[in-house]
From TrEMBL:
UniProt-recorded name of the protein: Stage 0 sporulation protein A homolog
PROSITE patterns: OMPR_PHOB, RESPONSE_REGULATORY
Keyword match Cytoplasm: no
InterPro entries: CheY-like_superfamily, OmpR/PhoB-type_DNA-bd, Sig_transdc_resp-reg_receiver, WalR-like, WH-like_DNA-bd_sf
GO-annotated cellular components: cytosol; protein-DNA complex
Highest taxon, organism lineage: Bacteria
PTM annotation (4-aspartylphosphate): residues: D53
Any single GO BP term: regulation of DNA-templated transcription
Length: 225
């Protein structure tokens, strides 16, 4: 599966040029032009890396980076800036971004920086899973409903992880039983799965993003509010 990159940049020409180059390198690239659009993207699902322009129409890249760090501390962020902003961006870099580049930059340099971040982060984007109001930090083994941490039992946690890792794909009950067996090393029967799903839904306030596919299994997918 290709790594996904979010690029928050209000200059459409620059955004499309960078996106075209990175797509040719095998990345999936989604662009946004404002802080608000960037937050909306991140709320629907996390990428492997976020590229953030320093100056945006509705706020600063530093502010967006702070917001990201509050929610997903290990998600890789690279600042991009024009030369006049370098001093500010170095301060912002020291406050939380993982790297920065000064415009105009060589696209091959950007590519090498992204690859280095992915190696260093151990593909950190895959450690943060989001669907609707539900998010999971696999590094810290924490689950959140909106911004409130939710306490789950081991089986409930593994069940949610399986659904999030296969987001937008229906998992049969048999497949879930196999995944839960592998995760826990213990036998999980069909009735136990039913009980775990019921408890999971209750603890997450019965989110619309967890779907039952009758006679087949379950699916987790984003739902338009």
């Amino acid at each position: 599966m290709a790594h996904r990159i979010y690029y928050i940049e209000d200059d459409a020409g620059i955004a499309e040029g960078v996106a075209f180059f990175l797509r040719r390198k095998g990345f999936e690239v989604i662009t946004a032009a404002t802080v608000a659009e960037g937050k909306q993207l991140l709320g629907k699902g996390l990428p492997s890396v976020v590229l953030v322009d320093w100056n945006l129409p509705d706020g600063s890249g530093e502010g967006l980076c702070r917001w990201i760090r509050e929610k997903w501390p290990m998600l890789p962020v690279i600042f991009l800036t024009v030369r006049g902003d370098t001093r500010d961006i170095v301060n912002g870099f020291q406050k939380g971004a993982d790297d920065y580049l000064v415009k105009p930059f060589e696209l091959e340099v950007l590519y090498s920086r992204i690859c280095a971040l992915l190696r260093r982060a151990g593909q950190a984007g895959g450690s943060y899973l989001v669907c609707g109001p539900v998010s999971m930090d696999k590094n810290q083994m924490k689950v959140f409903l909106n911004k409130e941490e939710i306490s789950l039992g081991s089986l409930e946690y593994q069940l949610l992880a399986a659904l999030l890792e296969h987001k937008n794909h229906t998992l049969t009950r048999q497949k879930l039983l196999e995944l839960l067996w592998d995760a826990n090393g213990n036998f999980v029967n069909d009735n136990t799965l039913t009980v775990a799903m019921k408890r999971l839904r209750e603890k997450l306030s019965n989110p619309a993003c967890i779907k039952t596919v009758r006679g087949f299994g379950y699916r987790m997918e984003d739902v338009e509010e």
